[in-house]
Amino acid sequence: EIVLTQSPATLSLSPGERATLSCRASQTISSHLAWYQQRPGQAPRLLIYDASNRATGIPARFSGSWSGTDFTLTISSLEPEDFAVYYCQQRHNWPLTFGQGTRLGIK
Amino acid sequence: EVHLVESGGGLVQPGGSLRLSCAASGFNFNSYSMNWVRQAPGKGLEWVSYISSSSISLYYADSVKGRFTVSRDNAQNSLYLHMHSLRLDDVAVYFCARAAGPTVPETIDYWGQGTLVTVSS
């Protein structure tokens, strides 16, 4: 099973700041990684698929990149609604696996 | 607009059974593969099961293999998860989730709001 390790576990920033979230895969997964946002009490929402493609309706302040087995989600300028938990997920092999999440909180 | 609505969750005793349902609308259900994903209280996301559009391909997480069965009724635009031999560690919100495209495995692009399964004596 492919293990995804997210860092940091918690990130505290202020609105307007730049957020950088990381996800490392335990083996090569090509670009087969997605990022999801989950607000309290809500279902996850797809932000980025295949490492760097924004999903429909996702603002341009969200971007994804990757190098080897290291993946990054960047939020260029935080809006109040961006404070949530973020998960990465790989679709390279079964079983689908998720990272443990990064909680982005308000400083 | 894609809409996924789960139902069937509730309280069940250890060793008991439950059937979850997911009603899909807003897209051609019979053209999309589907997944179940769960989230234990305060924890992260765990993929549970996958079913292809025609029900030919089925996949399960090791944690539920042999106890859970996924099925679908394309005529009714419905997805099901039959859960047996339920354990305390099956307590979670169960999400119905659509696979984005035809590749296997595939990204999940839409999620329902989930239904809570509680296992307790």
Report on the structure:
The complex is a heterodimer of chains A (107) and B (121). Chain A has strands at residues 4-7, 10-13, 19-25, 33-38, 45-49, 53-54, 62-67, 70-75, 85-90, 97-98, 102-106. With 107 residues, chain A is mainly beta. Chain A is globular, with a radius of gyration of 13 Å. Chain B is mainly β and 121 residues long. In chain B, the strands form two sheets. In chain B, strands 2, 4, 5, 6, 9, 10 and 11 form a seven-stranded mixed sheet that branches. In chain B, strands 1-3-8-7 form a four-stranded antiparallel sheet, with no helix packed on it. Chains A and B meet through strand 4, strand 5 and strand 10 of A and strand 5 and strand 10 of B.
Largest sheet data of chain B: 7 strands, mixed
% residues in beta strands of chain A: over 45%
Please work out how many helical segments of chain A DSSP would assign.
Answer: 0
Structural class of the secondary structure composition of chain B? mainly beta
Label the overall shape of chain A: globular
Series of H and E elements of chain A: EEEEEEEEEEE
Into which percent range does the helicity of residues of chain B fall?
Answer: under 10%
How helix-rich are the residues of chain A, as a percent range? under 10%
- Poorly predicted runs of chain B are none
Terminal CA distance of chain B reads 40 Å
Low-confidence stretches of chain A: none
Beta strands of chain A, count: 11
**SSE succession of chain B:** EEEEEEEEEEE
* Secondary-structure class of chain A: mainly beta
CA radius of gyration of chain A is 13 Å
Q: Write down the oligomeric state.
A: heterodimer
Percentage of residues in strands of chain B = over 45%
DSSP strand count of chain B: 11
Radius of gyration of chain B: 13 Å
What would the average pLDDT of chain A be, to the nearest integer?
A: 97
